[in-house]
Amino acid sequence: LDKTVVNKIAAGEIIIAPANALKEMLENSIDASSSSISVLVKDGGLKLLQITDNGTGIEKDDLPILCERFTTSKLSKFEDLTSISTYGFRGEALASVSHISHLTVTTKTKKDDCAWKCQYSDGKLVPLNPNSKTTDPKPVAGKDGTQFTVEDLFYNVPSRKRTFKSYNDEFNKILDVVGRYAIHTDNVGFSLKKFSESHYALVTRNNQQIKDRVRTVYGSIVSNELIDIKVPESDEYGLQSVTGLISNLNYNNKKNIQPIFFINNRLVSCDPLKKYIHNLYSVFLPKGSKPFIYMSLLINPNLVDVNVHPTKREVRFLYEDEIIEKICNVIQEELSKIDTSRSFQTQAILPHLNQLKKNNQSSMENVKQTSKQEIQIQNSDLNLYKQVRNDSAQSKITSYLNSNDNDNNDNNEDDEDDEDDEDDEDDEDKDDEEEDDDDKNNTNSEKNIDNKTNVEPIEIVNELDTENNNLIDLESNGKYQFSAKERVDVNLTSIITLRENVEKSINKELTETFANLIYVGIVDEVKRIAAIQYDVKLYLVDYSMISYNLFYQIGLSDFNNFGKIYLDEPISIKELLIFVNKAESKVFDEKTPEDPNFKLPNSQSFDLGSILKIFINMEEMLNEYFSIEIDITSSPDDPQLVSLPLLVKGYIPDKSKLPIFFYRLGTKVNWEDETECLDNILKELALFYVPNVLPSSYSKNEEKIKEYNAKIEFLFTVIKKRFLAKEELQKSVVEVANLPSLYKCFERC
Q1: pLDDT tens, 445-469?
Q2: Cα(242)–Cα(226) distance, integer angstroms
Q3: Most CB atoms within 10 A, among 54, 82, 133, 274?
Q4: Neighbouring C-alpha atoms within 13 Å toward the C-beta of 638
């Protein structure tokens, strides 16, 4: 390649943007022991980039070779890199600038009587005046120091120039570079302004305190929240010193400021150190917040390689991990010391409060009305369609527990007293009266629970109506009987495994939905569909599937610790099984039940003797683990059901499902394998507890419908407290509406 082409390619690697050219010339000025550096920018530095310093200047004899490649005064041999303390060392910066712009240099040393001005192109001196033939530097008036004037940057590289779309973006990059050097270099004053503008974008003084320089560059929102960091030196790792500033835990700046790292006074980006510090802050700061970091590391030059990147933005040093660990340990210690309190910005809720005080309104009623108006004004600014609306007077779980007769009498007396009190209060609204009634009912229900100490067992009639194939009077006037029983810790491997299987399949989002649901009501009693609200969304849920999983989970969590529902009189399990066959076949042969080997019409195996034998043999296990108490003493061939498990206090399963429950226990459970056996029984128990479809005969019975609705509503209060939703249940929950979408249609809430 032609030498000119080679130089242009090399210049494109070193000078990527105006900010890179500025950085190279800033470092030259700092190396020249300048105490003041001013920068003038036009069109983001593409049209004009001028850097003026008051440093030592450049000797006139050195000007002819100033912009030649690999020309430097910073070192003479490669070994000097191991001890170099200046910014420049390759001698490529000015050469690269001269190949892609019109570069003019004006310089004066202290011993010179005047300044010298010259112009460069492609690394060589060119005439200052197109009509002149001489390339010698021209004497001009000037101050001590050097002025670099870069014009028409990338004029001969149009493809690069087209990539710069915004002058403001390039100026902001220049401002960022100058600001970083202004913070680090305390013995130099910096100034930056745009061409033709009177005010400066940035001005710092030399020997200014570092926090004052940070305030000048980034504002008080940063400088007021800084703490000093100092890491002890370490001869083992060649670490001479680490000083800097980091933000405290109150820092909250929406503008993300990239960390400022200087290693041996070189502005670099140290990604490993940045990553470790950000990870450290993530423990203390809210998600998305980034800290302010300025850090200056001095490391033994023998352990640092500065020549690893064309633009010098990266360096490599030995013992990187060890040094980073020491720095992070110090930061961790400092942050832990101040992690005791936080400061938060506050805003007055009532902006017109002072005006109210000045008016000296004498009437409290007027003050209340004014306050209400202010609140309404503020609420109008909110997104109404995002507000969650629910019932503030939602019923308690305890309101659905049945009360005994004595308590009912007490309640009636209380109600009468309450009515007398209400009559005395003529100013109350009807709505307030209704709310008071609800509160009283809830209170009375709670009293009823507390008073239930000596009560009778739950009654269940066990007579069979052989003509109508139905159990007679399966409703009961249920009452609780409490008995002292210590909770048993279950260590069965099979139960632990089943619990782990449930935990692995949990859907967190769906579980949160059920944990915070607001029950709306039943949509379809036949399909067992109910509506619930969560946040601003309305869902339809299959409560039969939900309740099945709920009771299975309760069975697992309370295994071997169930309560008991005692029957008024024992029920013959044999008669229950015969009843199943009678309901299935529709044709009853009185001789068939006496035959222990009779079969169902659908050819399913129904060995009555074998099933009864299972219940007789498993009687102790069923009683201990599941509270299914079976009496085999009165009639060894006809076991009697004494009690059923109580999974949830206040919820009694539908006893019409008893026959099919015992039929499935006898035919659907694998009694040979422990894990499968316990899992099968728990699933059958959950199926037994699932609420039945509302019978069609109850469709016009308002009392029955009300009882059914109350039962389902109580069930959802249990779901809200104890249910863990599995992944497979997503198909049982369907979103049907949400407030933001409805607002788009109706523009009202």
Answers
A1: 333 333 333 333 333 333 344 333 3
A2: 16
A3: 54
A4: 11
Cα dihedral sign, 28-32-37-38: negative
Q: Which two three-digit tokens encode residue 449?
A: 């629970």
Q: How far is CA 667 from the centre of its chain?
A: 48
Q: Taking a C-beta distance cutoff of 8 angstroms, is the pair 143, 54 a contact? A: yes
Contact of 523 with 539, CB cutoff 8 Å: no
> In whole angstroms, what is the distance from residue 572 CA to residue 578 CA?
10
CA atoms of 643 and 565, how far apart (whole Å): 5
Partners of 296 in the β-ladder: 243, 262
Helix axes 674-689, 619-626, angle to 10 degrees: 60
Sketch the domain layout of the chain as residue ranges. Answer: 3-203, 210-338, 353-381, 489-562+691-749
Query: Residue 181: phi, psi to the nearest 5?
Result: -70, -30
Q: Is the Cα torsion angle 645, 648, 649, 653 positive or negative in sign?
A: negative
pTM of this prediction exceeds 0.85:
no
3-state class percentages of the chain: helix first, strand second, coil last, to nearest 5: 45, 20, 40
Say whether domain 210-338 belongs to CATH 3.30.230.10. yes
- Could you tell me the fold of the domain covering 3-203? Heat Shock Protein 90 (3.30.565)
C-alpha to C-alpha distance for 259 and 261, rounded to whole angstroms: 6
Regions in the chain scoring below 50 on pLDDT:
89, 348-353, 356-357, 360-363, 367, 370-372, 374-382, 392-393, 395-479, 585-605
CA distance 53 to 46: 21
User: Within the chain, what is the greatest distance between any pair of CA atoms?
Assistant: 136
Burial of 319 (0-12, 13-18, 19+ CB in 10 A): middle
Q: In the predicted model, what is the mean pLDDT of the chain?
A: 78
CA distances in angstroms from 39 to 25, 147, 194, 411, 748, listed in the order given = 10, 10, 9, 88, 57
Q: For 105-158, what is the HEC assignment?
A: EEEECCCCCCEEEEEEECCEEECCCCCCCCCCCEEECCCCEEEEEEECCCCCCH
Inter-residue contact 81 to 307 (CB < 8 Å):
yes
